[in-house]
# Entry
Amino acid sequence: MGEFPFKGRLAVLATMHRKEQAIAPVLEEMLGLRVEVARGLDTDRFGTFTREVPRPGTQLATVRLKAQAALAAVPEADFGLASEGSFGPHPWLPWVAGGRELIVLMDRDGGFELVGADLTAETNWGSRLVNSVADAVAFTQDIGFPSHAVVVIGVHKGEPDVSKGVYKGLMTTEDLEAAVRIVLEQHGAAHVESDMRAHVNPTRLQAIERATRDLVRLALSGCPHCGRPGFDVVERREGLPCGACGLPTRRVRLEIVGCVGCGFRQERFPATGQTPASPGECDACNP
Ligand SMILES: [Zn+2]
Ligand SMILES: [Zn+2]
# Structure
């Protein structure tokens, strides 16, 4: 493993929502890391899905802050570990919901960091403004209820407003109906959405596990020059020739893999190979 052995070392995880269920078995089995949860760490101060606390920065900046907080909470830990999800319209498929999960493993002096990622359309993320208990119950069937929890939020001027009441982690029809009834009585409408917290959202937990496996892939990908883990694509060059006219397209022609430790770089063909691009992807043939 070169200069960064993982076996037997302690990684401390920032979570209040039982993410260790998805993360710990993978890292323990694949890397031999010991994973412990940073007890008593309030990760909600780095943002909540339900809008009470805004995220302090980008998704990557936030996940780093969480990992640093875990390290600060457990002085004997070798690594800090945290994950952060982001949900919304899928970047490539705007008509479907998508999720991006990041997981970071960093050492104490900040000189070593790996970031695993999972980008997926497999998410139950969704929300709706409803005017009746029946509409609320019907909508929750679309977002995985009751195997996945839902949240009911008060409404102000047609928008969800947590200052008007927020009911999280609803997993029974009885609790859901009661919360919707209270909010409807007070505001005339209720905002219903999927609860994205990992411990009440098995689909999200699976995405976190996939991101963890991506982290393992990086951890096991050592630099051929110095052995440092995390040898991965640092640049993609477009220009794969069109199969019809031969002109360069926006498809990736070459990947550059590099080491952030020693700066060693290598060129390689993408996993999709050197097969020419189809004329449909060519600006000249298909303007
Ligand atoms: Zn062409
Ligand atoms: Zn290197």
